[in-house]
Amino acid sequence: NAGVTQTPKFQVLKTGQSMTLQCAQDMNHEYMSWYRQDPGMGLRLIHYSVGAGITDQGEVPNGYNVSRSTTEDFPLRLLSAAPSQTSVYFCASSYSGEGYSGNTIYFGEGSWLTVV
Amino acid sequence: DQQVKQNSPSLSVQEGRISILNCDYTNSMFDYFLWYKKYPAEGPTFLISISSIKDKNEDGRFTVFLNKSAKHLSLHIVPSQPGDSAVYFCAASAGHKLVFGAGTILRVKS
Is it the case that residue A15 has pLDDT exceeding 70? Predict the structure, then answer.
């Protein structure tokens, strides 16, 4: 059982380039989300999805785009990378049925992105 | 405006003693509060949670206390072990969206 898988683990981009961070989960979770972690700021929600075909913005959505064509995959696109997007990115998924008690949110191992 | 605050960036504790990590929040609508543990180069892993209708939840060496009137929660680790050394994030849940604190680095010295 792979859980939540993120690729790539490390990436260096030049300012203005675009790229996609991939996220896949094999737990049949309906809810998926992307967070970024910056020093002294914890993790902040970028975008989230409550199911295939449904996405919404989180706290820091600017410069990022998402889509959810399948239950398993939730890619995060950087349209025109900026140095301010240098961060560690975490994908998460969770079960959304009855009995949710906050303990069923699973995180991937992270993707380290540097924009120069 | 940070809705979840962890005011101590780091904490150092002797092995076998109690570790107490603190967290404050501002939004009364949060329904669950969680603690996540994170090692370097890994994703956060769930540690323990507490519903907003309870004031204590215990799981082995870990206990979380919630004081709703003070909008404060704390994580107690007893006894602390060197393997507990990690970054601990407090998070509050509004549905499936988590709001995280900035984290506290816990170092347990042997």
Answer: yes
